[in-house]
């Protein structure tokens, strides 16, 4: 009996190979051949699942987004109180291990490439903050209702400031300017100020 192929699994494996290549060589230098070598398959197989370079890049982007979202959701959902959920969300945005550094680096490469590639720009390359912003806004509003946070600035503006801080600190971490612990401490201090207002 012939072996049944799990096409979704194969597509995921190829997207993972693209991400590993992009982390080492840069996204601009990754093509069918590099992905095939990394995955240990033929170029034809890669092209079967991703017929064009654009579809290959899109597959990698979806993979990065799905992995990042799963890690984030697991960390946030492990907490119940709004301030703890905020702390978990922001801490997960800062690269702190090999996997999160890879995800951040490749996602940032997609964002940079999207500045000059209109087709890629139309993809959800920057949807992370867009998706997180309403959730963080809601958590800030909930914390204020519960008396756990103060301040009179609109929760939407607080959320924007916190996400911008996390994004900037993430860049500092991958560039080696700050370590993950120091970056997380800065984020924690920002949340402590919010709680103390």
From TrEMBL:
UniProt domain HTH tetR-type: residue ranges: 17-58
A Pfam family the protein falls into: TetR_C_6
SUPFAM superfamilies: Homeodomain-like, Tetracyclin repressor-like, C-terminal domain
Domain of life: Bacteria
Keywords recorded for this protein, A-Z: DNA-binding, Repressor, Transcription, Transcription regulation
Classification via InterPro entries: BetI_C, Homeodomain-like_sf, HTH-type_TetR-like_transc_reg, HTH_TetR, Tet_transcr_reg_TetR-rel_C_sf
BetI-type transcriptional repressor C-terminal domain span: 82-195
Record-annotated membrane-spanning stretches: none
One example GO MF annotation: transcription cis-regulatory region binding
Protein name: TetR family transcriptional regulator
Organism from which the protein derives: Amycolatopsis antarctica
């Amino acid at each position: 009996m012939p072996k049944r192929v799990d096409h979704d699994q194969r597509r995921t494996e190829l997207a993972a190979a693209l991400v590993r290549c992009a982390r080492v060589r840069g996204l601009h230098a990754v093509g069918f051949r590099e992905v095939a070598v990394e995955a240990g398959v033929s170029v034809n197989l890669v092209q079967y699942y991703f017929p064009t370079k654009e579809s290959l890049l899109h597959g990698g982007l979806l993979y990065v987004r799905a992995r990042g979202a799963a890690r984030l959701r697991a960390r946030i959902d492990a907490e119940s109180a709004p301030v703890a959920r905020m702390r978990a969300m922001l801490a997960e945005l800062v690269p702190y291990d090999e996997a999160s550094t890879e995800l951040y680096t490749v996602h940032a490469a997609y964002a940079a490439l999207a500045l000059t590639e209109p087709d890629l720009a139309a993809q959800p390359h920057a949807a992370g903050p867009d998706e997180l912003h309403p959730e963080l806004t809601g958590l800030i509003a909930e914390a204020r209702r519960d008396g756990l946070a103060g301040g009179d600035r609109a929760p939407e503006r607080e959320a924007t400031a916190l996400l911008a801080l996390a994004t900037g600190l993430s860049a500092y971490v991958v560039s080696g300017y700050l370590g993950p612990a120091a970056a997380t401490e800065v984020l924690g201090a920002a949340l402590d100020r919010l709680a103390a207002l």
